[in-house]
Design brief:
By secondary structure, this protein is α/β, with parallel strands linked by helices. It folds into two domains: 207 residues, Class I glutamine amidotransferase (GATase) domain (Rossmann fold), CATH 3.40.50; 104 residues, Arc Repressor Mutant, subunit A (Orthogonal Bundle). Helix content is 47%, strand content 14%. The chain contains 15 helices and twelve strands. An eight-stranded mixed beta sheet has the order 5-2-1-6-7-11-10-12. Helix 1 packs across helix 7, helix 6 packs antiparallel against helix 7 and helix 12 crosses helix 15. The longest helix has 20 residues. It is globular. The C terminus is likely disordered.
């Protein structure tokens, strides 16, 4: 079971609690509908006291556990703080040592918007990259000069500490976490349900101190570059190992150890990511997209796409194109 908790404080922005709750809950339900042995997920709201907590916007939430007695967690969310974070920081000061202990235990912690100030106050961002709500950039820099603020990134990651700049960005991060917990098919299904037309892939939005998949095997790095350079052609994978001067068996072992996948799976992932972008942003036919991916068979491309995402290329395009392209009746007639 995955256990996620979100902290409640009076100035919390409720959508930064409810959106991840719904995304992660939908992922667990979808996964378990396909495989009853898939891990369940429990989402806890935690407050200074157990019971009803009324936010400054008038909404009342119910804390199930005390923030002082949290169970072992897979993820802790610090929701966005409405207006100035100062009152929340002042009230949370006695709890910051507890936050430090949670981080030291390896729990993933994610702050939304100006909740990054809680992490900074606890010293968890010293010497690390971070982001916050854009309207607080200057004040954050003045208050926490020891933090490496990344104003051009909506998400930052340093080990188990994540910061996201907005509520939309917490959605991006949740889809990324879902992919790690339940796999790509479930992540894509959830993504399609929660506004795929506006979502950025985690890797495109995030600044990472230690990106997932980073490794120091130079041979594998060369192999990955070789595949990227040739992904638009009919790649002959049997040529890869000789091109790098190693045996196929050695390359297979090292590639899997460094990346967690085979060279073929890595190539397929490159192609699917490119296909998703083409389906979103172009009117190319399926045959044309397949050709651009180095695949001669449009039917095979459709099978590969569906196996990876859970939907056909046509279904994916239909889901995302509505807000990217003007409906035909609205286009000017030349």
């Amino acid at each position: 079971m995955f256990t996620v908790a979100a902290l409640i404080y009076p100035d919390a922005l409720a959508t930064s609690l409810t959106l991840p709750m719904e995304i992660l809950g939908a992922a667990a339900q979808t996964a378990r509908s396909l495989n009853r042995s898939a891990p369940a997920l429990e989402f806890l709201l935690a407050g200074d006291t157990v019971g009803a907590i009324t936010l400054t916007n008038g909404l009342t939430l119910h804390s199930r556990v005390s923030q002082w007695e949290l169970p072992e967690l897979d993820l802790l969310i610090l929701p966005a703080i409405w207006r100035t974070p100062t009152p929340t920081l002042r009230a949370a000061k006695p709890w910051l040592a507890q936050l430090q202990q949670i981080a030291a235990a390896g729990t993933r912690i994610c702050s939304v918007g100006t909740a990054s100030c809680l992490l900074a106050e606890a010293g968890l961002l010293d010497g690390r990259p971070a982001t916050t709500h854009w309207n607080y950039f200057e004040r954050f820099t003045r208050r926490y000069p020891q933090v490496h603020l990344k104003t051009r990134h909506l998400i930052t990651q340093s080990d188990n500490i994540y910061c996201v700049g907005s509520v939309n960005s917490i959605a991006d991060l949740c889809v990324h976490l879902v992919e790690g917990w339940y796999g790509g098919r479930i992540a894509r299904a959830v993504e399609h349900q929660f506004s795929p037309e506006i979502r950025q892939p985690f890797q495109a939005a995030a600044w990472q101190d230690a990106p997932q998949g980073r490794h120091h095997d130079e041979t594998v790095l060369l192999a990955q570059q070789w595949l990227k350079d040739r992904m638009h052609t009919a790649v002959a994978l049997q040529e890869l190992a000789p091109a790098l001067g190693v045996s196929a068996r050695t390359l297979h072992r090292r590639f899997r150890l460094a990346t967690g996948m085979t060279a073929q799976a890595y190539l397929n992932a490159l192609r699917i990511n490119t296909a998703r972008d083409l389906l979103r942003r172009s009117n190319l036919s399926m045959a044309e997209i397949a050709w651009r991916l180095g695949l001669q068979d449009a039917s095979y491309f459709s099978q590969l796409f569906r196996r990876s995402t859970g939907v056909t290329p046509g279904q994916y395009r239909e889901a995302v194109r509505g807000k990217l392209f003007d409906p035909p009746e609205n286009r000017a007639v030349p």
